[in-house]
Structures are given as structure tokens and as C-alpha cells.
Amino acid sequence: MTEPGRPNNGSEEELEIDLRQLIEIFKKWSRMILAGTILCVITAALLSYFVLPPVYEAQSLLMVTKATERLGNPQTQQDGLEGVVSSVSTLPVWTMNTYIGQITSPALKERVIKRMQKENGSSTGIYGNIDASAVKDTNLIQVKVTSGDPYVATKMTNILTEEYVQYMTEHNQDQMSRSVSFLESQKEKTDKELQEAIKALQEYEKKPRGVAVLELEFNSKSQDLLSFNSRLKSSQVEIQRLNSGVAELEAGLAVTPSTISVQKWDQISGTMVLSEESNPVYVAMASQLSEKRAELAEKLGEVEGLSRLVDSMNSDLNALQAELTEKRVEQEKLQREVERLRQTSETLAQKATETQIAKSIDLGDTIVSVVSAAAVPKNPVKPNKKLNMAIALVLGLMVFSLLAFLLEYLDNTIKTPDDVMRELELPVLGVIPKLNKKSRQNSYYGG
């Protein structure tokens, strides 16, 4: 072995360890290593068998029927009023870690402590001895309780599971009660708003010139307008017919002479005399033309009156329609509000009934149930004597081996000729023996 600070032929200090040197070191310090290791094993055995108290572990299984893998991934989210009311009236879906956190919570530990004190008068060992974990790929929770007494551990485990089921029942019952109270109070508030909305709608409908009255008036005027439009069109057709008749009579009069020559016997002169007389055809046609013109003038006046009346009625109908539309919008708004409040009241009543039914069920047992109760453990889980002794054996070998190397490293004396040749690279000319009683008796001399 080359020590630090000693001269070497190389430019850097090196630590060279030969296998034979290691074996020599182990042989040299074997008694110390063996004695120290045995001491560690004996110490671990004494601690495990006589000092450390035995610890027993009782186990039970709980099954959760409502759980999800992660928060924010609920069953089915509904939109609108139904979804809001459902979120209030239903129990939340928790993750398995939430249930585990509740089992190990201080509140539940306090309940177990009180019950243990009530039944046994002691709560020793309750703090820090409760452990819960989820069984992989299942809805099962494994509950473990450790104690120095196997019966105490068993009873504590069973009490813990019973108290947790009771705790969940109380928690869910309380939440359902609050949900029912909230839904009922909201229903009362909604019913009041509904009555006010119905009253407002009825008062609006009772107002003069309401939607119903305006609709009747609008329908009546619309029928009158249709009738007047029909009469107007008929009059306009009649005017066209009269114009055609007048034009035809005027054309006939233009080609018909107003007088005709007639030969008559003059009694005085006793001869035939020509005289001019009115043409009866012309007179008849002129009479017909006058009648047609009079009838035409009458129809023109009628058409003008009907046109004015139709325009006036159109204007009235437009104003009436605007008023009717405005009032109909307001009435529909009131009706929608009444319908919305009525639907809200029905939904709240339905959810309150459903929540009341759910409240009557033992919700703690339906969400969390005990699958396997704890049995009395036969053997302690701590201390593990064999494991402790094995660990002491390994640690003893490691620690005392390292101690041997440390002592050897710190030893910078030269004791053997091999040390001289290795360290000083000088030949050994002789050795002065160390005389003792044994060497004298055996006449031992040499290195």
C-alpha cells in the first residue's frame, strides 16, 4: 500500500491496492471484523427479542360504490336549470384518495379515541397507527391499525371502520338535509315570484285595448278592408265597362245624323213637301250616352270614396298592428316569465322530493360498506427478528471492514521486510528478531 505524502517515481500520487494486500488486510483484522459483526448481531437479537415490544397489525377492507379516478371527471354534466339543481341535490363523487384522507383524518381519529375511551377507558397507541391505502384497480380500501395488543388492534380496526361508515352516513344525511332545506326555501321564493308574475299578467290582460280586444278589432277591420277592396275592384271594372260603352255611343253618334228629311203631304198646297225632323236613332243614342255618363260619374265618385276609405283603413290597420305587436311582445314576455317560474317550481319540488327520498336511505352504507372485518392477528409484524439480525450482520461486516481499511490506512509504520522492499525499494540485509518467551522456548529466529 502506498501512503499519501510518500515519494513515488511517478508524477502523480496514486493509490494502488493489490488483491493480495486486501486479503492480508482482512486476515490481519479478521478477529476485529468477526468480533464486531457478532457483537452487532447479538445486539440486534437482544433488542429484537427482549427490548423492542411486539407490534400487531389488524386489517379490514372497505368497498366504495361511488368513486372516480380523478376530480373534474363527473358522471354526466347537464346544462341549464336541471343541471344546477341536480348539482345541489346530489352527493358529490369523490376520488379514492379523498376517502382515504377521510379515514386518516383527525376528526375520525377523535371519534375512535372517544369510543375507545368509552368502551375500554384507554386510547393508547391510536395516534399515527392508522394507515389506509387503495387496492390497485379496485374500489377497495385496506385499513391497517397497529398496536402492541392484538385484541386492541382488532377492536380498534373494527371501531374505525364502523365509525367511518357512521361518519359518512351523518355527513351525507347532513348534506341531504341542507339540500332539502335549500330546495324548499328556493321553491317558496319561486312560488311567490310565480304568484306575482301571474298577477302581473292578469292585470296586463285586463287593461283596456288589450291584446284580445286589439286582435278582434284588427280581424274586424281586416275583414272590412277586404270587403271594401272587393267593392273597389268591382267599381273599377264597372268604370271600365262604362267607359267602353260611352266611347262606343260617342262613336255611333259621330256617324249618325241628328236629323232626317221626311216627305209630307201639304194639305194647303196639295203637294209633297220635304221637312227636317229629329233622328229618333240619334235621340235614343244621345239618351243612352247621357245615362252612361251619369252612371260613369256616379261610379267615379264611388271609386274615389272607396279609395280614400281603403287608404284610411290601411293606415288604421298599420297603427293597430304596431300597437298589437308591442302589446303582444309584452304579454308574451310576461307569459314566458310565468312559464319559467312554473317550470322552476316544478323542478325544485321534484328534486326536493327525490332528495327527501334519498335522505331516508342509509347513504353511508350505500356508499361505503365493510367487506371484511378485522380478525385477531396471531403473529406480530414488528419487530422482524430474522430481518433485524440479517441487517445487523450485513451492517456489521460493512462497518468493521471499512474500519479495518481505515486503521490500515492510518498505520504508516514499517513492520516486515516486505514493507521495506515495497515502500523504500531497498533490499533487506537482515532482520533483528523480537525475542519473547515463546521464541526462546522454540529457538525461533528470523523474519
Tell me what the structure shows:
The chain has 447 residues and is of the alpha+beta class. Among the domains are: 117 residues, Helix Hairpins, CATH 1.10.287.370; 32 residues, no CATH class. It has twelve helices and six strands. The strands form two sheets. Strands 2-3-1-6 form a four-stranded antiparallel β-sheet. The chain has a two-stranded antiparallel sheet with strand order 4-5. The longest helix has 81 residues. The two termini are 20 Å apart. The N terminus is likely disordered.
Concise synopsis of the structure shown:
With 447 residues, the chain is an alpha+beta fold. It has helices at residues 19-28, 30-51, 80-89, 96-103, 106-120, 150-206, 211-255, 280-360, 363-367, 385-410, 417-423, 437-442; strands at 56-64, 130-134, 140-147, 259-266, 271-278, 368-372. Among the domains are: 211-327, Helix Hairpins, CATH 1.10.287.370; 416-447, no CATH class.
Which structural traits does this protein have?
447 residues, alpha+beta, Helix Hairpins, four-stranded antiparallel β-sheet, two-stranded antiparallel ribbon, disordered N terminus
Provide the fold topology:
Blueprint (H helix, E strand, L loop, with lengths): L18 H10 L1 H22 L4 E9 L15 H10 L6 H8 L2 H15 L9 E5 L5 E8 L2 H57 L4 H45 L3 E8 L4 E8 L1 H81 L2 H5 E5 L12 H26 L6 H7 L13 H6 L5
Antiparallel strand pairs: 1-3, 1-6, 2-3, 4-5
Helix pairs in contact: 2-10, 3-8, 5-6, 6-8, 7-8
